[in-house]
Amino acid sequence: MSLVPFARISSLRCLIIDDMPTMRQNMRMHLGQLGVTRVDQAATPDEAIRFAQAGSYDLIICDYNLNKESNGQQLLEFFRTQNMLSPTTMFIMVTAESGYSLVASAAEFQPDAYMLKPLTATKIGERVDRLLEKQNALLPITEKMKRKDFAGAIVACDQVLQTAPKWMVDVLKTKGTLLIEQRRIDEARKVYDDALALRDDLVWAKVGLARCNIVAGQLDEAKVLVQDVLASNKQFIAAYDLLAQIDEAQGNEEAALDALTRSSEIVPSARRSRLVGDAAYRTGNLDQAKEAYGKVLQHTRGSLTAQPTDLLSLAQVHVDTGEADQALVLLSKVPKRYEDSKAFNSAQAAVQAQAYVQLGDTVSAEQAFATAKEAAGGEISETATLALAKAAFSMGREEEGAKLIADVVKSDHENKTLQTLARKVLSDSGKEALADQLIDGAVKQCMAIIAEANALMRSAKPDESLAKLEEALHSMPENTGVLLAAAQLHLLWMSQRGWNDDYVKRVKRYLSTLDRLIPGNERVAKMHKFLRDTLSKVAPKN
After folding, report:
1. What CDD domains does the database record attribute to this sequence (predicted)?
2. What are phi and psi of 377, to 5 degrees?
3. In whole angstroms, what is the distance from residue 211 CA to residue 432 CA?
4. Taking CA atoms, which of 57, 111, 343, 463 is between 20 and 30 Å from 80?
5. DSSP code of 438?
6. Tell me, what's the pLDDT at 146?
7. What does the alpha-carbon distance between residue 252 and residue 423 come to, in Å, rounded to a whole number?
């Protein structure tokens, strides 16, 4: 029997995730009472991931307790960080009342709704109906955001505030974030101040003001606000991330590591442990890095949520702490799904080469080094190239190691974290004196290419300018600075000479790559706007 009041729910495509067959069947029955006919069922996180990879869902209902290896919150985290869900997908987490407070307060990625057991068709229908109402009300904003029209989305926020004040909090949150991304800081401050005038305990608004201060370069003021938030909201994860960001910007890497460590104690997830491991490794806290990466592997063992770099990172730490045998044992237990990855195979062999050098097995080291180079095939993978450079230095191949360091920095010369890791390789290898020559030299070389392309464009040689950047991207296809310059100069060419199908495709490809590499970046957002403005002026009338 279908429940008529929820007729608009019947067209939704749904995924049920629960490790208990009876619970899945009950949920399927409830959805059937709501008229929902397109329902898939997953018994494990890995099965749910496969379903999500194969198609798009309007509604996902997931039980919090899935199995010993992972839970619903960790699965949601994976979906969000891997961009596997549509912005309009509704994710409902189902949990027992006894565990709700812990799950809800310490969740880094919030679902669209929590529902307490036991469930009924009416309860599900009412909750989904409300989510659909909200989704429909915010549609003018989300449609603009999908098109990367963030200035238009801000205007839409004001319109929705007038037509649907019921959703004021959600709209103000979105508007504040958009204004910060557009660097309209004074307007963003007013949004957060207005929100706090309504309720002075709105943590997200205080954090928003801290973000405004960070963008404005007022780091001390931002830190005071964040610390104030944490004094009364010790489980607010976003505040720890901001604190770490501030400390890192002020050069206090140990304090940044401490902030991330505290957040991982609140949300002991794979992602949090990974952040701690990466920060600890960069600062030379190898014991802490080893512990953190070990936790990551525990969280993701036997699951599709595992990432190849987790295993490689822990193996590298073992080598760096003189535990070559343990590194080799770890690298001998590689999941089969990594076997087809050239980047993984290259990095794996490079770390093995370092371990063999440490054990005095020069023959095996040479073989592993050759395997690493062959697997790389001339392509730049940051993890593999840094590991290969370290192996080269350990084997006395200084020129080869130096070239690898220069190449990896040139692959993305604006990436400060990459530069830090390159310096660490040189420091660990006793080649610290080469840092300025190799790293700063590589950065200057990339900047010179961009400067030359700009000069050619100004000298009325646009074709030569674009050719220069295309040539650069051939050897460093994921260099964010060169991609941005290429997008800008191609758009300038079209603004002067008119529409060009190939150049439109190129710019869209550049921006798609940038969205993947540096999601939410302000400069990329401005380039999306430049693309829209340019195309509106030069698009053929037909």
Report:
1. REC_TPR (cd17589)
2. 60, 30
3. 35
4. 343
5. I
6. 86
7. 17
Indicate the residue type of 218.
Q
Residues of the chain with pLDDT under 70: 1-7, 68-69, 97-108, 541-542
Contact 14, 61 (CB under 8 A): yes
Query: Could you tell me if 372 and 394 are in contact, meaning their C-beta atoms sit under 8 angstroms apart?
Result: no
Q: 4-136 adopts what CATH topology?
A: Rossmann fold (3.40.50)
d(CA 124, CA 533) in angstroms, rounded, equals: 44
How do residues 3-39 score in pLDDT, each as one tens digit? 545 668 999 999 999 999 999 999 999 999 999 999 9
Q: What is the pLDDT of residues 470-487, one digit of tens each?
A: 999 999 999 999 999 999
Q: Are 204 and 225 a contacting pair, CB within 8 Å?
A: no
Which residues of the chain are in CATH 1.25.40.10 domains?
A: 443-538
Give the 3-state secondary structure of residue 217. coil
- DSSP letter at 119? P
Q: Which of 359, 362, 363, 418 is nearest to 389 (CA)?
A: 418
Could you say which architecture CATH assigns to the domain 443-538?
A: Alpha Horseshoe (1.25)
Q: What is the DSSP letter of 65?
A: B
Residue 116 contacts residue 100 (beta carbons within 8 Å): yes
| DSSP H stretches of helix in 459-521 | 462-475, 480-497, 501-517
Alpha-helix residue ranges (DSSP H) falling in 286-415 = 286-300, 308-320, 324-331, 342-359, 362-376, 382-394, 398-410
Using alpha carbons, list the distances in angstroms from residue 326 to 5, 348, 356, 469.
61, 14, 12, 45
- Gyration radius of the chain's alpha carbons: 26
Report yes or no: 438 and 425 within 8 Å, Cβ to Cβ: no
What residue type is 508 in one-letter code?
A: K
AA letter at 256: A
3-state class (DSSP) for residue 149? coil
Rounded to two decimals, the pTM is 0.88
Instruction: Name the segment(s) of the chain with CATH classification 3.40.50.2300.
Output: 4-136
**Cα dihedral sign, 534-537-540-542:** positive
Predicted local confidence at residue 104, as pLDDT: 55
What is the model's pLDDT at position 383?
A: 95
Report d(CA 316, CA 390) in Å as an integer: 10
Residue 392, token pair as written in the block: 């080269």
C-alpha torsion angle, residues 262, 263, 267, 268 (rounded to 10): -60
Query: Distance between CA atoms of 145 and 140, rounded to whole angstroms?
Result: 9
**Distance between CA 286 and CA 321 in Å, rounded?**
7
CA atoms of 221 and 213, how far apart (whole Å): 7
Enter the tokens of residue 250. 């002020």
Distance CA 390, CA 327 (A): 15
Share of the chain above pLDDT 70, in %: 96
pLDDT digits (tens, 9 = 90+) for 194-246: 999 999 989 999 999 999 999 999 999 999 999 999 999 888 888 999 999 99
pLDDT of residue 1: 45
